[in-house]
Amino acid sequence: MNLELANALIGAAFDYRHAHDLKPLTIAVIDAGGHLVALQREDGTSNLRSEIAQGKAKGAVALGMGSRAIYNRAQQQPYFVGAINALNKGSLVPVPGGVLIRRDGVLIGAIGITGDTSDNDEACAVAAIESQGLTAETG
Q: Is residue 59 within 8 Å of residue 93, measured between CB atoms?
């Protein structure tokens, strides 16, 4: 993951958002080590959205599964996800919108999107990833 790719992913997600008339978004792209590469927010987003976007993406990389899978796991094993969230200093966001990014099967990072419904956030992320010829993994 590099800045050029991260910005391309963000641009593609914003394009999808506008084409589908979704609410303003905040988007975080991280590398496979969980480090923030790029973060952008549209006008009209609330003040915690950058933390939410990063929490979705970082949780996905930390657990090796998209945040939809983390959400499902939280339903089945709430104590486990609660413990992981505590270890992550409370910044894990276990709802759809954090999607792993793979190139040729290799994890290169994740994108976290927030601002609309969690399902729409995830759809934006998947569309952005696939627009760059990469593989999206939601869970």
A: yes
